[in-house]
Amino acid sequence: MNKNTRIMVSSVAAIFVLACACPATSLPTINTQPTTPPFVVPPTQAIPPTQDGFEVPTLPPLEDTNILMSDDFNEFSSRIETTSDETGSSEIKDGVYILRANGDVWNWGKSNSEFSDTVIEVDASMTVGPANNNAGIGIICRMQTREDTSIDGYLLAISADGYYSIRSILAGSMEPLVDWTYSDTIVQGSGHNIIRATCDGNSLILEVNGEQVATAATISGGPESGPMAFSVVSFESAEPTVEVHFDNLVVTAP
Predict the structure, then answer these.
(1) What is the model's pLDDT at position 30?
(2) Are the C-beta atoms of residues 209 and 55 closer than 8 Å to each other?
(3) Longest C-alpha distance within the chain, in Å?
(4) Is the pLDDT of residue 136 over 70?
(5) What are 58-109's pLDDT values in tens digits?
(6) What are residue 156's phi and psi, to 5 degrees?
(7) Cα separation, 200 vs 103, whole angstroms
């Protein structure tokens, strides 16, 4: 199990911050508006089936009165950006938000609204990825973009091979608050996971399929508000393409 530990921005448009790529050291320059043709995913090896006999539990419902944003992606939405460039793409299609990364860097798609204290819940399923499932799937909260296009924020993530982590991001550099740790709670491969990320004051909480798996405290000087984002990556350079479908997004106040 070898996971990336850094993050950086890959492209920014004049009005919207678009996709984010996340390697170890250097920061990219700002690119122009990405092209609009659909992203073509190169063929990859088939993903092993979901673990037999595992039933995804139902999390307690979030309070309707606290909802800040929600989307079932059954039709085009301006709530979360869609984009396409050489690092990957994001689009709304067939009732899901599809996020792709094409390289060994984190790629992301962010909301067009900003939040401070939030509980972010979403269904996530990897449909394309490395044969050993070594790919990351995460939620970024309080994402801020600096003038040099590097970002700040907090990443609460799982991997399709059964690990979880909470990481801080400052000026594009990612540091573990909870390093990658294995959990049987996470459905591996192409299975369906319910991810809930809480960013509330100084508290960060990651829940997967109804079970709390990790907690951490925010860092000094970390961001206090910003957009939320979905983020994905393949950790296998020989199989760099990953595609994850997100659905039933609900963002609430704690």
Answers:
(1) 32
(2) no
(3) 49
(4) yes
(5) 555 555 669 999 999 998 888 999 999 988 999 999 999 999 999 888 999 9
(6) -115, 115
(7) 32
Q: Where are the beta strands (DSSP E) in 29-128?
A: 67-71, 83-85, 88-93, 96-102, 107-110, 118-128
Q: What mean pLDDT is reported for the chain? A: 82
pLDDT(52) > 70: no
Residues 188 and 137 sit within 8 Å (Cβ to Cβ): no
Q: What is the full DSSP assignment across 121-171?
A: EEEEEEEE--TT--EEEEEEEEEEE-TTS-EEEEEEEEETTSEEEEEEEET
d(Cα 221, Cα 197) in Å, to the nearest integer? 20
User: 3-state DSSP call for residue 23?
Assistant: coil
Residue 111 has pLDDT above 60, yes or no: yes
Burial of residue 242 (number of CB atoms within 10 Å: 0-12, 13-18, 19+): buried
Paired residues of 167 in beta bridges: 155, 176
- Report d(CA 150, CA 173) in Å as an integer: 8
Q: Which fold has domain 64-252?
A: Jelly Rolls (2.60.120)
Over range 35-58, report the average pLDDT: 43
β-strand partners of 70: 250
Task: Find the mean pLDDT for residues 117-145.
Answer: 97
If we measure between CA atoms, which residue out of 82, 67, 75 comes closest to residue 18?
A: 82
Rounded Cα gap, residues 171 and 58, in angstroms? 37
Distance CA 246, CA 241 (A): 17
Q: For residue 64, which phi and psi values (nearest 5 degrees)?
A: -60, -35
252 sits in which H/E element: strand 241-252
